[in-house]
Amino acid sequence: MSDLVAQLNELHKSALDALARATTTEETKAWHADFLGRKGRLTDLLGGLGQLPKEQRPLVGKSANEIKVALEAALQERQEAIAQDEMSRALSAEGVDVTLPGRRPIVGKYHPTTTTMREIVDIFNLMGFQVYDAPEVETDENNFELLNFPPDHPAREMQDTFFTTSPDVILRTHTSPGQIRAMREFAPQPIRVILPGKCYRNEDVTARHEMMFYQVEGLAIGRNVAFSDLKGVLLNFFNQMYGEGRKIRFRKSYFPFTEPSVEVDVDCILCGAQGCRMCKYSGWLEILGAGMVHPVVLKNGGYDPAEFSGFAFGMGIERQAILKRGIDDIRYFYDNDVRFLERVA
Ligand code: DAH
Q: Is residue 327 within 8 Å of residue 244, measured between CB atoms?
């Protein structure tokens, strides 16, 4: 018996030695077959158990079993260590260079319409104009009738309108209906507001026209508001927006909701009034429409025209962005091509 136990102990020791020398999963598998497998050395040794006297067998068997359990535990431990090792070797073999600089995420920025709108709003804010929000979906009444465009008035032709399936509900064609809303909210208080926002017209889309575009409307109403106030406010706006020393020019015009009505030009900032494609070789850029609020419109807004007067103006925001940011086609604005958005300041 002592002989078999000694051999078992010997086997235990040499198995542990051999296991310590295994450095790959393959080698641990071979080791398992060699020592613990069905035809392995332990099985082999236990073949001699039958020769032992009966009473010794359980003791030797127990000892053999303990060795088997211990060797299996040792194997598992070794295999885990090897797996860890193989994993870290595989990772470094793939050559991940942790010192490479990361990829910069793309940082978004404001759309040129938003930037331009904010510039315009900031300038008027400093002159005491507050932003007044008005809806894009309007009634025919606010968009036209109360602004002194009766049904079938030829001035409606200039603003080819999108109608909705609800009678008399339309997409506003300009920001001017906001004038009616502001007046009706504030009358008889004085008003100084600007109204930025989207407008819609059924235009043929070209380099200069879009179906959807932005305008900023301005409105000032009070007891002594004069045409010279309009001039001063606009001159200040142009100097802030396009640089000091601007010259402006008023041309007579017609809008049903102002009387008198004007169109206002600024000396061409692109060519220094020398004449270029942008100013059509005139030295002047057309910027906005303006005028003194028509007495009928004042009345519709709730103000007595004998006591109150006011001025109004309206301009396209994309037009200002085009001039200031050197854009040559309005269609770029809402195409959602990031190359345009990245290129334009
Ligand atoms: N609403 C006009 C348009 O879209 C622009 C305009 C002209 C607005 C004169 C005004 C104004 O407030 O006084 O063509």
A: no
Phi, psi of 198 (to 5 degrees): -80, 145
Fill in the DSSP letter of residue 163.
B
| Cis check: omega of the bond before 196, within 30 degrees of 0 | no
For the chain, 345 residues long, give each residue's pLDDT as a single digit of tens: 568 888 889 999 999 999 999 999 899 999 999 999 999 898 888 888 888 888 888 888 888 889 999 999 999 999 999 999 888 888 888 877 788 899 999 888 999 999 999 999 999 999 999 999 999 999 999 999 999 998 888 888 889 999 999 999 999 999 999 999 999 999 999 999 999 999 999 999 999 899 999 999 999 999 999 999 999 999 999 999 999 999 999 999 999 999 999 999 999 998 989 999 889 999 999 999 999 999 999 999 999 999 999 999 999 999 999 999 989 899 999 999 989 998 998
Q: Is the CB of 178 under 6 A from ligand 1?
A: no
CA distance 99 to 93: 16
- The model's pTM is 0.72
239 Cα–ligand 1 center, Å:
21
Cα–ligand 1 centroid distance for 163 (angstroms): 20
